[in-house]
Write a structure and sequence with these properties.
Helix content is about 0%, strand content about 45%. It has strands spanning about 5, 10, 20-25, 35-40, 45-50, 60, 70-75, 80-85, 90-100, 115, 120-125. The N and C termini lie far apart (about 40 Å).
Length: about 130
């Protein structure tokens, strides 16, 4: 069974940091582009970052550039999202997703991903 499992998020103070992980089971992540998405209450799910298979390229939403860093460890079948300088507007449920593509670059569109994790809550508040 193909499964993606995000690590537990949590409550973080503004300006703090958090590292989310996304572990795959039932399949090998090597061939997949991986995206991180988030959905805040009352808002659409948006792509925040992605990394191509084998890590050749990354992509970030403008709202997170310079604060979020995506990486992958194919040996551990895991992708990470390092989040620094957290802001209250980063509060959301964060999802990781995996998708296959003929293109070398990943996209921040939901349509590019077929497999999704269950999501993890990140709350930024003092």
């Amino acid at each position: 069974q193909l499964q993606l499992v995000e690590s537990v998020g949590g409550l973080v103070q503004p300006g703090g940091s958090l590292r989310l992980s996304c572990a795959a089971s039932g399949f090998t992540l090597d061939y997949y582009h991986i995206g991180w998405f988030r959905q805040a209450p009352g808002k659409e799910r948006e792509g925040v970052s992605c990394i191509s298979n084998y890590g050749g390229s990354t992509n970030y939403a403008d709202s997170v550039k310079g604060r979020f860093t995506i990486s992958r460890d194919n040996a551990k079948n895991t992708v990470y999202l390092q989040i620094d300088s957290l802001k209250p507007e980063d509060t959301a449920v964060y999802y990781c997703a995996a998708g296959l593509s003929l293109f070398r670059v990943c996209v921040l569109s939901r349509s590019g991903y077929a497999y999704w994790g269950q999501g993890t809550q990140v709350t930024v508040s003092s």
